[in-house]
Design brief:
Structural class: mainly alpha
Distance between the termini: 16 Å
Strand order of the largest sheet: 1-2
Helix content: over 70%
Number of helices: 8
Strand content: under 5%
Largest sheet: 2 strands, parallel
Number of strands: 2
Length: 217
């Protein structure tokens, strides 16, 4: 038996998994940041050593991901800066939970329906993964082009959407020195990494969902 509802549900899960996994990559992969320290000549530009910069970043990430006390190594911070990172912690953990839950749900569905008669229906001749990829492209393709053409405005728009009514994301380098070791170039490269990973998911999903004999994706 072919189920249209199951097909739509799987497409939604696949889309959420791809987005959350892509966002999780720069969050979880600390070496991605580490590679920027010398590449962007942060010690020369800031006067702090490689070790001090590394410690400051790790302290912030430990606060965001492990619930450690907020600190930034030898670098100064303010209550306003801390409050922004507290807001970020909520979003980071939401993304990681979404990544884990959608991944687990997809695995369970795959195991349950692998040998069952009930299978996801093909919608307009395409499998669920095709529609997941098309949905991601429709939702994020335009913003990706906008960010590529004007990252500053895209960066500002992102913060206004996800931190509505707040201005604590605008850091003063005199009171929140950690912003000096998290330059815009780093965040731009994080966006590029996320975009590349999403593009890979989209291509993979569309190819799999377009296969004529596709039954499970």
């Amino acid at each position: 038996m072919k189920s249209r509802i199951l097909s739509i549900f799987i497409a939604l899960l696949l889309a959420l998994f791809a987005v959350s996994a892509s966002v999780a990559a720069p969050i979880l992969c600390r070496p991605f940041y580490y590679a920027h320290i010398d590449a962007l000549r942060m010690p020369e530009k800031t006067g702090w050593t490689h070790e001090q910069i590394l410690e400051a970043f790790d302290d912030v990430m430990d606060f965001l991901l492990k619930g450690a006390e907020f600190q930034t190594g030898d670098l100064a911070w303010s209550e306003s800066g801390k409050s922004h990172f507290a807001d970020c912690k909520v979003l980071f953990r939401l993304d990681l939970w979404l990544f884990a839950l959608t991944g687990a749900a997809l695995l369970v569905l795959f195991l349950l329906f692998r040998h069952k008669k009930t299978q996801p229906a093909r919608l307009a001749g395409r499998g669920p993964s095709f529609w997941a990829g098309a949905g991601i492209l429709a939702c994020f393709g335009g913003f990706g082009l906008f960010a590529a053409s004007d990252f500053d405005r895209a960066f500002t728009l992102f913060h206004k959407v996800f931190f509505p009514g707040k201005t604590n994301w605008v850091f003063d380098a005199r009171t929140d020195q950690v912003i000096l070791v998290m330059p815009e170039t780093f965040f731009r490269n994080c966006a590029i990494l996320i975009g590349v990973l999403l593009a890979v998911f989209v291509i993979l999903y569309i190819l799999l969902g377009s296969k004529r004999k596709d039954k499970n994706v």
